[in-house]
Design a protein that fits this description.
The chain is α/β, with parallel strands linked by helices. It has a single domain, classed as Alpha-Beta Barrel (TIM Barrel). Strand 4, helix 9 and strand 5 form a beta-alpha-beta unit. Helix 16 runs antiparallel to helix 17. The chain is globular, with a radius of gyration of 19 Å. The structure holds 6-chloro-9H-purine (ES4) and zinc ion. Zinc ion binds next to strand 1. Its EC number is 3.5.4.2. Keywords: Hydrolase, Metal-binding, Nucleotide metabolism, Zinc.
Length: about 350
């Protein structure tokens, strides 16, 4: 790997912002800012149980994953038309481009929308058009990952997959999200096997609040290529070895973990420990509108709180490209730009 040159500590935040990166763990419904929730509610003649944007934002006081999910699903209920999905994704992509995100693989939760009568093609077509336009107009590469809600049944996941089949060329993979505890990966073994046969990439949330056993079964039963979160892996030495040896990426989300109290403080986050153990960790925003920051905020805050270095920064950005489902040609271009950015920061020392 490229030998990372010494970079003065006071230039590290600027470097974190400037470096090209991939975002691999972003729930598009979690990018809906309160302002856009109100705009869409007005446009769709819906009344929200909050009088103002400020009142809605002040309801964002979570203490764990479930307390967050309850309000996150309520926020997503203002999305009804293809243009709503387009506008949401477009706003995220414009914001991500500002953070020098070169590539993103966006999660979406179709069951949240189909549950209240929105057709899956409305969801996928709106999101996909936003990705296409962003590539042309913002120079950002964006693809879609369909997530199954694990608190719902296997049958519901199969039904969702069936509905998505005519649009399968518009997604690159599938994931598994929502309430983790009590909903182990095994519940979706058959759905993931079918997705694998369809040639889709596979990821799953595991080890956010759930135990290392859920990470093992995501790997060995679902056969996923990346683990979303995965921070609980540190409690299982054999699992740490497996993740390092197989270069299984973890899409870590520091501000999410702080807000949902996975760690008592950001300073207690184990990102540095994961990197030290040789794991392919990455930094991501999860649900930026709810957790107090986009990807660069996640980088700058976790670096400031835990004392990570320029070398760690390079590794995290490099890991994000390597762990992506983009082509090798695209990866080489982004990795070259990454190296150039680091070299630029030494020269101006
Ligand atoms: C999520 Cl932080 C988190 N965990 C699990 N599922 C999710 N869906 C949206 N954000
Ligand atoms: Zn997530």
């Amino acid at each position: 790997m490229f030998k990372v040159p010494p970079i003065p500590a006071d230039r590290l935040p600027a470097l974190l912002r400037a470096m090209p990166k991939a975002e691999l763990h972003i729930h598009i419904e979690g990018s809906l800012e309160p302002e856009l929730i109100f705009t869409l509610a007005r446009r769709n003649d819906l009344t929200l149980p909050y009088a103002s944007v400020d009142e809605l934002r002040s309801a964002y006081a979570f203490t764990n994953l479930q307390s967050f999910l309850d309000i996150y699903y309520a926020g997503a209920s203002v999305l009804l038309h293809e243009q709503d999905f387009y506008d949401m994704a477009r706003a995220y992509l414009a914001r991500a481009a500002m953070d020098n995100v070169a590539h993103t693989e966006i999660f979406f939760d179709p069951q949240t929308h189909t549950a209240h009568g929105v057709a899956i093609e409305t969801v996928i077509n709106g999101l996909h058009r936003a990705c296409e336009d962003a590539r042309a107009e913002l120079g950002i590469s964006a693809t879609l990952i369909l997530c199954f809600l694990r608190h719902l049944s296997e049958a519901s996941a199969f039904e969702t997959l069936e509905q998505a089949l005519p649009l399968i060329d518009k997604i690159v993979g599938v994931g598994l999200d929502s309430s983790e505890l009590g909903h182990p990966p095994e519940k979706f073994a058959r759905v993931f096997a079918r997705c694998r046969d369809l040639g889709l990439h596979l990821v799953a949330h595991a080890g956010e609040e759930g135990p290392p056993a859920y990470i093992w079964s995501a790997l060995d039963v679902l056969k996923v290529e990346r683990i979303d979160h995965g921070v609980q892996a540190v409690h299982d030495a054999a699992l740490m070895k497996r993740l390092a040896q197989d270069r299984i990426a973890l899409t870590v989300c520091p501000l999410s973990n702080q807000k949902l109290r996975v760690f008592p403080n950001l300073a207690d986050h184990n990102l540095g420990r994961l990197l030290e153990a040789g794991l392919a960790a990455t930094v991501n925003s999860d649900d930026p509108a709810y957790f107090g920051g986009y990807i660069n905020d996640n980088f700058t805050q976790v670096f400031a709180a835990t004392g990570l270095t320029a070398r760690n920064a390079y590794q995290l950005a490099f890991n994000s490209f390597e762990a992506s489902f983009a082509s090798n040609a695209d990866k080489r271009v982004w990795e070259h730009r990454l190296k150039e950015t680091f070299e630029r920061f030494v020269e101006y020392d």
